[in-house]
Amino acid sequence: MPDPVILFFVLGAVAGLIRSDLKIPGVLYESLSIFLLLAIGLKGGIALSKHHPGELLGPILVVVAAATLVPITGFVIARLVGQQDRANAGALAAHYGSVSVVTFAVASSFLMRQAVEAEGYMSVFLVILEIPGLLIGVALARMGASETRWLPLIHEILTGKSIVLLVGGLIIGYVCGEEGAVSITPLFFGLFKGLLAIFLLEMGLVTAGRVADLKRSGIFLVSFGLLMPLLGAMIGLITALGLGLSVGGSTLLATLFASASYIAAPAAVRMAVPEANPSLSIGASLGVTFPFNITLGIPLYFAASQWLIGGQA
Amino acid sequence: MTSRLVVRKLITVICESALEQGLTQAISKLGASGYTVSDARGKGAHGVRDASWPENANIRIEVLCDEPIASCILDLLVNNYYSNYTLVTFVSDVGVLRPGKF
Prior knowledge:
The complex is a heterodimer of chains A (313) and B (102).
Chain A: H1 4-17, H2 26-48, H3 57-67, H4 69-80, H5 86-97, H6 101-114, H7 122-129, H8 132-142, H9 150-158, H10 161-180, H11 185-190, H12 192-209, H13 211-243, H14 247-258, H15 264-272, H16 278-308
Helix pairs in contact in A: 1-12, 2-7, 2-10, 2-12, 3-7, 3-13, 4-5, 4-8, 4-13, 5-8, 5-16, 6-14, 6-16, 7-14, 9-15, 12-16, 13-14, 13-16, 14-16
Chain B: E1 6-16, H1 20-29, E2 36-40, E3 42-44, E4 47-49, E5 58-65, H2 67-81, E6 87-96
Antiparallel strand pairs in B: 1-5, 1-6, 2-5, 3-4
């Protein structure tokens, strides 16, 4: 039986393709994204309160080092195979180097349905991985260019709503701990899947709207959007194996490495690499990679994690 | 009644919402005393921009100012924005009641 949240995504995509007048108001989209970011942050913070944060320093360094491979691979493929210019290849690299919070939320929901536990601190990786890949992509795009205003760019990334809410949720969850947060858990955890479903309905509509971009940019973009998550997931699975994560943790890490940003990255890249064509990278990340990951990718990464790690657990 | 009105320039820029912060800061720096930003949707050379997705919506920035400042703002748009961003700009003469404000 498929996960209902995915069916909501399909409903949105179908509504978009048949040109229904269904529209999710912008304020609801904003409200739901605030809710999802806070809920994921809080969940991670509560899990983190059971650990000593220092224990995570080593794994964080390993994950960040491994994550740098994703944008570099993406850049090389886009340049050499896709014949993209430096700006567009760098923009694609930045989108794929960063991560997608909603894909992570769908993977968590998938694990909940399978009744598989994951290390709670995975959302710490989510927060951290949003940044380096984005910066590497921009650096690759700007290499040799006259000047890049790094400070405003870093300010834009660090003060973006996703980082502020995720980090804020993490800190609040960490400070309050499981017992302290009891009063807010019915909202943030009890209603999580229902609200995620409405958010995915909107994402389905948005994805359907990107199909026109894909028609224009052709076969390379579609192949890139399918190949990159598989390569990323492979790097993620190897890293998870090295870190000794559980099947659930490994699925989430593979999903993080496989996912492409379509909220933080487009805004930052638009400012930092204005000559890149935004419909290429958003078309690939939102039109191809996001639907692939939430429908086929996550179950695939889960199966691969079970195969790689499950035997030892 | 029209004799009470003084002529000023109204610059209207319709552009990607990603430009809001940078552009409004630059406009203020050039000496405009204020601006109005509103969400916009429509259709143009880049297809339908229906604001269905807030991350990828259009905005309309309106600035009331005198002619020298208007000219600086147009130079800024031509030199820094037109080559890479999607925007439409038009300028009109409008009558204002309190010219000291603009």
